[in-house]
Specification:
The structure holds three protein chains of three kinds.
Chain A (H helix, E strand, L loop, with lengths): L11 E5 L11 H15 L3 E6 L13 E4 L4 H10 L4 E3 L4 H13 L10 E2 L4 H7 L2 H10 L7 E4 L2 H10 L4 E8 L5 E4 L5 H10 L1 E10 L5 E9 L5 E9 L12 E3 L6 H17 L4 E10 L4 E8 L4 H10 L3 H9 L27 E7 L2 H6 L16 E7 L2 H13 L15 H9 L5 H10 L4 H8 L3 H19 L4 H9 L4 H7 L4 H10 L5 E4 L13 E5 L13 E5 L11 H15 L3 E6 L14 E4 L4 H11 L3 E5 L3 H9 L4 E4 L14 E9 L4 E10 L2 E5 L17 E9 L13 H4 L1 E4 L2 H11 L3 H9 L5 H10 L8 E4 L5 H5 L15 E4 L4
Parallel strand pairs in A: 1-2, 1-4, 2-3, 4-5, 18-21, 19-20, 19-22, 20-21, 22-23
Antiparallel strand pairs in A: 6-9, 7-8, 7-9, 10-11, 10-13, 11-12, 12-15, 13-14, 15-16, 17-18, 24-25, 24-27, 25-26, 26-29, 27-28, 29-30
Chain B lengths: L1 E6 L4 E8 L4 E8 L5 H6 L6 E5 L3 E2 L18 E3 L2 E2 L12 H7 L3 E4 L3 H11 L2 E6 L4 H9 L6 H5 L5 E3 L5 E6 L4 H9 L3 E6 L4 H6 L4 E4 L11 H11 L4 E4 L1 H9 L4 E10 L3 E4 L4 E4 L2 E7 L9 E7 L5 E6 L4 E4 L14 H16 L2
Chain C lengths: L3 E4 L1 H18 L6 E6 L2 H17 L5 E4 L29 E9 L3 H13 L4 E9 L11 E5 L7 E5 L1 H4 L3 E5 L1
Parallel strand pairs in C: 2-3, 2-4, 4-5, 5-6
Antiparallel strand pairs in C: 1-8, 7-8
The chains are: A alpha/beta, B alpha/beta, C alpha/beta.
């Protein structure tokens, strides 16, 4: 136990990639792999990565040998053999990686030779995780409680169970004849009837009884454990909504505010116990439910792999979770973990403490879908419906929440008293009990209509603390709406996280005047460092958030910096490709010698990785937030994606130099099922256009056409911004031709910026980083050698046996849409497949 | 109402008053734990101190009967960034604001606590006052104030009392005992007698204890009379002994070792502590102004069992000849990580051995 | 009947830690000390105690292993093979020996170990450290250092598992 368990023979490590982005997988796995490759390489490992995600950053890393391949057992097995892999690292690919690794283990045959070891957990744990009954028994025998489901066949058995379990109980039919009824029994008197009724619905006369934990408080804890069994808690978050609503769909807050130390410590101990039982080396995310009346805890989910909480916790605390987790998995103990010099020497071992509040708000796409004519089931339940999330950082709950709302929606219309007026009282009560995506706004509206805190807490099972906070918010709201613009009110408003734009609306003024007034009266943001010691130690922090207090800790990074406005929360259609593009831009600007500053609020996004930029501002992305950072950093230029038209206009009007990264406001609609969309992909350097490659797009799939286009005549094309674009035309055909007749480009095509997803895909397939070309073109055009190289490379830009498919998302499971969803426009993710495999 | 905090070095922080409108003086320290505010402000070790909380929102969990570490909080002030106004105890009769009012303790919120903490980490703890108006009078008052060094006399019991159980007989020598220790002893069903620190050796031994605990307490242990050290020296050779916090510092003093101070006090629960013998790492609540000086440790009598892995301070000692040991950190988990409770498990195993061998 | 884990990894570590402290208390600074582990699991436990002493005092305490399978007086055997590994032989004369075993039950194993030890030399003292004392002694033997007392029924079995050979540290009562 005293020896380092890093195995000297362990030299060649294969990372499994996480595959396409999806509900609950928004690119955080790829960002994590991308982040840890350099440090593991520096420790002497040979690294390999296999993935089929076109938006992957890690696949373009030079720190590993990267392999584009569909993630199947067969493919991974041949890679293992060919590359003589010693160890496989499944945990950074999340639940998919773990499942794939389980399969590889079970399908490994003697003739396959020696099987590599799995990093992160022993084989026995992999097995246990695959057998939920055994896992349940193992955890229960260690004294942990889980909501257990038992099958009974008659009333007597049911009564027997009743003596063991306390009410409320959840009763449902086993093998139901038709749709099943779930009954929650709260009173002893109802028990017998409920059993009778449900038993009659079962084909086999069996009833499933389990402890009803809906309505309990839900908490997530992130633990790191090393091979010596040392555990540390990275952090904990509480969900505002009770168990029963998927944690991804709930507002959540860190650190935990409404639970006593005694209960929190018990949760921590249970989470440590789980990590020990499973023998984990690396992260474990344990979800618990708390019955506040009895202080009874239930373990509701154990995720011993990297998931969205891992990255979020890293961003919220400033603790480098991924860098530590990867080294723990490779066998180091916490005491020996190496970190870059920018961290305090003991950072890895110190449990991070937060002196700020972070609110995570889910982002739903219901509105966009509705606008496209698709109705989906909006009622929140235990299946994830949100597509992404945004974070708000502040020093009070209200400030963090308002900033999260602005980050999620690019505005805080929630604050407008008119917004929820049209909801009838009946609807209001319905939605209080059966929540929808507009949760917070509805709660505010209920308070506005005079509901009492007790009453609301009872109806919603939400802690009273949140209602007291929302009441406070209402008070501030009426002060502002009823008052005149003044320094005092401005100060209150800014401390509550409101934007200048919103205040301008309330006070019938304009953004410029509010901004001038704020500056004049000294109501300016103070940036606080985000670091894991809560001020105990001098820090060399690169991450900041704005608040309105006395001390500003942020110094401008340089007199020659470039500010990037990130893409914010993951949204359908954008794919994780937006994160990919922002990250490559940062990386290339760095290469060109610029100091870079990024603003963003999406924890899953690679662009916020500490090593990609010189400074990160964790802020909403409205003009008022951007201008505040501009006042702080005085950047030479601001890079903004073309879909943020209002922001671009406002920044230009304020005299800022804006570099536009061409992008459509929405992802374009895909071709109909009976047609093909063809595109000539081109690069425009600010003066001339260069043809790259021809692509064909049918519903859900994009392929390259192996046809020379480098002599296409593009002389007439003049565009406002350099970038990569597509000349589009459609034909009624569903075959995949080897060659197509080219139209007259000036007449028969229309032009659009190349969607971010296709930029990422083509960059990988063509081995040509399109975004790097674009970035180099910003500074007075490419230099001659770049263009020469591109022109020389053009004949090599040919077809490929890889296609990109984007129709694999299970929308029916998550959203229950009433009509098919256009998987181009509402893409969740895509993967690259080799055509002969399809 | 706007109120102010003046530090001895002249720095002023302003905020809104809550709790009692009193003007108080105390030594100001900061606490980085994100949970357990009620346990912290009622812990007798903070007698005479003002506490700045790094946790930005304080009060959201209300005030609970099970989270008192003593009935009467002895802190002189509480400085926070945001005060959450909730009443979540069952009777809905108590929240943080009312609790502080009841005990005549002033609070200050809407303070840039991060700035204050960054300031204090450089200057170390110092005298401070919470006032309505910042003027020469207030500054003079602060300079003229001499803070008491009689904290132990102030908080420790002067009368023996018992907390009966059916298990081992544990004598607690009280220097400002926190409830958490009694709570854990209760978990072991110990038969507890709490004695004033002025009790004589004979009186203790007549009670025939199976084990002795030197309790936590406030202030500088060197302000206590020599008789306390004599008491420890005799008892440690006869009965298993566990010293905690101030009790640990006294255990070191009694064994010919000396104390020192670190540049900044540490109050929090996020430092890893290594148990040297097993190389295991735990976390525990710490609250310390003094630590045992590693250069003035009598290694013929004592050896180091635990260290803080961040600042390398001594966190645990053990006697070479007797079943007597001590920890600087708080192993009672009130507040704080429960893995630290293993110290009590070790203590009771030692008591079992002692009892078996002496029967 | 279900088997029951009576000592998990953490509590097993604690027990060894406490035994080590007590050994130290009775053998100043570990000088003149030799640990003798009774094979198989006692040997691993002895090494762990030695590791702990090294962490504390920075000195390496010699560890020997003794195989008493041929010395048990309740088993048929030819009494020819010496229980100590040839390589491990150290001069034990005038040394303080701590005999380390996993379970103390009837005392017959301990007696056999004592016989074997005395056959190769005369130590100054011999003391006994056991992880588990389960009672039911048949000989006048008492452990000086006990990790945990676990009262058992005669027909129960105590299974000690150590990471080095069993992949896990735990003690289980087997019915």
């Amino acid at each position: 136990m005293y020896k380092r368990t890093t195995d000297e023979n362990l030299k060649r490590i294969l990372f499994l990639g996480a595959g396409e982005t999806d509900f609950g997988m928004q690119g955080e796995n790829d960002a994590a792999i991308y982040q840890v490759l350099p440090i593991l390489k520096s420790q002497g490992y040979r690294l390999f990565l296999v993935d089929d995600n076109p938006y992957s950053m890690a696949l373009e890393s030079s720190e590993a040998e990267t392999i584009v391949s569909t993630l199947t057992v067969q493919n991974i097995k041949s890679i293992i053999k060919e590359k003589q892999i010693d160890a496989v690292f499944p945990g950074f690919a999340g639940i998919r990686g773990l499942r794939l690794w389980q399969q590889i283990i079970s399908e490994w045959r003697e003739e396959d030779g020696a099987r590599p070891v799995g990093l992160g957990m022993p084989d026995s744990t992999v097995e246990l995780l695959n057998d939920s009954a055994a896992l349940f028994e193992r955890l229960e025998s260690a004294g942990l409680s889980m909501p257990r489901a038992t099958i009974v066949r008659n009333q007597a058995e049911a009564n027997e169970l009743l003596r063991d379990l306390e009410l409320p109980l959840l009763v449902r039919a086993h093998n139901p004849a038709a749709g099943t009824t779930r009954k929650i029994v709260r009173r002893l008197d109802d028990f017998e009837d409920a059993i009778d009724q449900v038993m009659s619905q079962s084909l086999t006369g069996e009833v499933v009884i389990s402890k009803a934990i809906n309505g309990l408080k839900e908490i997530s804890i992130l633990v790191l454990r090393d091979s010596n069994g040392n555990c540390m808690q990275v952090g904990a978050t509480e969900d505002m909504d009770p168990v029963g609503i998927h944690t991804a769909d709930s507002l959540s807050v860190a650190p935990v505010l409404t639970i006593s130390d005694q209960v929190l410590q018990e949760m921590r101990s249970q989470a440590f116990l789980v990590a020990n039982i499973l023998n984990i080396q690396g992260p474990v995310h344990v979800q618990l439910a708390l019955n506040e009346k009895t202080n009874q805890l239930y373990i509701i989910k154990v995720s011993p792999y990297l998931d969205n909480l891992t990255n979020r916790m890293a961003l919220m605390t400033g603790y480098p979770v991924m860098l530590v987790a990867a080294q723990l998995a490779a066998g180091r103990v916490l005491q020996d973990v190496e970190l870059p010099d920018s961290y305090h020497a003991k950072t890895a071992m110190m449990e991070p403490v937060m002196d700020h509040i972070v609110v995570k708000l889910p982002v739903f796409s219901f509105g966009d879908l509705k606008a496209a004519g698709v109705e989906v089931n909006r009622q929140l339940n235990s299946i994830q419906k949100s597509v992404g999330s945004a974070l708000g950082f502040g020093r009070t709950f209200i400030e963090a929440m308002e900033k999260a709302i602005r980050a999620a929606h690019f505005n805080n219309r929630s604050f407008s008293p008119k917004y929820m007026k049209n909801v009838s009282d009946d609807e209001l009560i319905q939605q209080l009990i059966h929540p929808h995506d507009n949760r917070v706004l509805l709660l505010v509206e209920a308070l506005r209509r005079g509901y009492e805190v007790d009453e609301l807490a009872e109806l919603t099972k939400i802690d009273e603390f949140y209602f007291y906070q929302l009441k406070q918010l209402l008070k501030i709201e009426s002060q502002i709406v009823d008052g005149e613009a003044s320094q005092e009110l401005l100060s209150v408003a800014k401390q509550s996280g409101l934007s200048d734009g919103l205040l301008a609306r309330f006070w019938q003024s304009d953004f410029q005047s509010i901004r001038a007034m704020a500056k004049q009266s000294g109501v300016v943001p103070t940036y606080k460092a985000l670091e894991p010691s809560a001020g105990e130690f001098p820090e060399n922090a690169h991450q900041f958030f704005a608040t309105f207090e006395e001390e500003n800790e942020s110094e401008p990074v340089s007199d020659k910096s470039i500010l990037l406005v990130g893409a914010g929360a993951f949204r359908m259609g954008d794919g994780a490709a937006a994160g990919y593009v922002t990250s490559v831009v940062l990386s290339e600007l760095r290469k060109l010698g610029y100091k870079t500053v990024i603003m963003n609020n999406n924890a899953a996004d690679a662009s916020l990785l500490p090593h990609l930029s010189d400074k990160q501002y964790l802020e909403p992305l409205e003009v008022s937030d951007v201008m505040a950072v501009v006042d702080q950093e005085h950047p030479e230029a601001i890079v903004v994606a073309g879909n943020r038209r209002k922001l671009i206009e406002a920044l230009v009007a304020l005299g800022q130099k804006v570099i536009v990264l061409p992008k459509e406001k929405h992802q374009p609609a895909g071709p109909e099922s009976d047609e093909s969309e063809f595109a000539l992909n081109i690069f425009y350097d600010g003066e001339a256009a260069y043809p790259l490659v021809l692509t064909q797009h049918q519903e859900g799939e994009v392929r390259l056409i192996d046809q020379d286009v480098f002599d296409a005549d593009l002389s007439g094309i003049k565009l406002p911004y350099s970038g990569v674009y597509q000349l589009i035309w459609r034909e009624k055909r569903t075959d995949w031709p080897k060659e197509v007749a080219l139209p007259n480009f000036a007449v028969d095509t229309w032009l659009r910026p190349m969607p971010f997803g296709e930029i990422a895909f083509l960059s990988k397939i063509l081995q040509l980083s399109l975004i790097r070309l674009v970035v180099r073109s910003w500074k007075g055009g490419l230099d001659g050698s770049d263009l020469e190289a591109l022109v020389a490379h053009m004949p090599a830009l040919r077809g490929s046996d890889f296609a990109m498919v984007s129709d694999r998302t299970d929308f029916n499971l998550h959203l229950k849409p009433d009509s098919p969803i256009d998987s181009t426009r509402f893409e969740m993710g895509a993967k690259m497949i080799r055509l002969q495999e399809n | 109402m706007e109120r102010h905090l003046i530090l001895e070095d002249g720095t002023v922080f302003s905020g809104q008053g809550f709790g009692a409108p009193a003007t108080t003086f105390g030594e100001i320290i900061f606490d980085t734990a994100t949970s357990g505010y009620q346990e912290t402000i009622t812990n007798p070790i903070y007698d005479g101190q003002m506490i700045v909380f790094a946790m930005p929102v304080v009060g959201a969990d209300g005030i609970h009967a099970e989270a008192y570490e003593s009935i009467n909080p002895k802190i002189r002030g509480m400085i926070v960034h945001d005060l959450a106004e909730v009443s979540t105890n069952r009777q809905r009769r108590m929240n943080l604001d009312r609790f502080l009012k009841q005990h005549n303790i002033p609070g200050l919120y809407q303070v840039d606590t991060r700035k204050l903490i960054r300031h204090l980490r450089e200057t170390g703890s110092q005298k401070a006052t919470i006032v309505d108006v910042v003027d020469d009078h207030a500054r003079d008052q602060l300079q003229a104030t001499v803070l008491t060094n009689k904290q132990v006399q102030n908080t420790a019991t002067t009368k023996a009392y018992s907390n009966p159980g059916r298990g081992f007989h544990i004598v607690v020598i009280d220097f400002g005992l926190k409830n958490g220790i009694l709570r854990v002893l209760g978990d072991y069903d110990a038969n507890v007698t709490v004695l004033p620190y002025t009790t004589s050796v004979d009186e203790v031994l007549t009670l025939d204890p199976d084990g002795i605990i030197l309790s936590t307490g406030p202030g500088n242990p060197e302000d206590l009379p020599e008789s306390v050290l004599t008491l420890i020296r005799v008892l440690q050779s006869k009965v298993p002994m566990l010293g905690i916090g101030l009790g640990h510092e006294l255990f070191a003093l009694a064994n010919n070792s000396e104390l020192t101070t670190l540049p900044a006090e540490y109050h929090g629960m996020n430092h890893p502590i290594q148990e040297i013998i097993s190389q295991e790492m735990i976390y525990a609540r710490q609250g310390r102004g003094y630590v045992v000086d590693p250069d003035a440790l009598d290694t013929k009598k004592l050896f180091v069992t635990h260290r803080d892995m961040v600042d390398n301070s001594i966190q645990g000692l053990r006697h070479r000849d007797f079943p007597a040991f001590s920890v600087q950190f708080f192993p009672d988990g009130a507040p704080g990580p429960l893995e630290a409770k293993r110290v009590f498990a070790d203590f009771f195993e030692t008591v079992v051995d002692y009892v078996q061998k002496n029967n | 009947m279900v088997n029951k884990i009576v000592l998990d990894q953490a509590s097993m570590q604690r027990a060894l830690t406490r035994i080590t402290y007590e050994i130290l208390e009775h053998n100043k600074g570990g000088q003149n000390l030799i640990l003798v582990g009774v094979k198989t699991r006692g040997e691993y436990l002895a090494h762990r105690i030695a590791d702990r002493l090294e962490q504390l005092e920075g000195v390496k305490i010699p560890v020997m292993a003794i195989d008493i399978s041929d010395y048990r007086d309740d088993r048929l055997s030819n009494h020819t093979k010496l229980g100590l590994d040839e390589d491990d032989r150290v001069n034990i004369i005038d040394k303080n020996i701590v005999l380390v075993d996993d379970v103390l039950f009837t005392g017959r194993t301990t007696r056999a170990a004592l016989d074997a030890l005395i056959q190769i030399g005369r130590p100054k003292t011999i003391s006994l450290a056991v992880l588990i004392d389960r009672g039911h002694r048949e000989l006048p033997i008492r452990a000086d250092f006990v990790g945990k007392n676990i009262p058992t029924a005669q027909n129960e079995k105590i299974q000690v598992r150590v990471k080095e050979i069993d992949d896990v540290d735990e003690v289980e009562i087997v019915h």
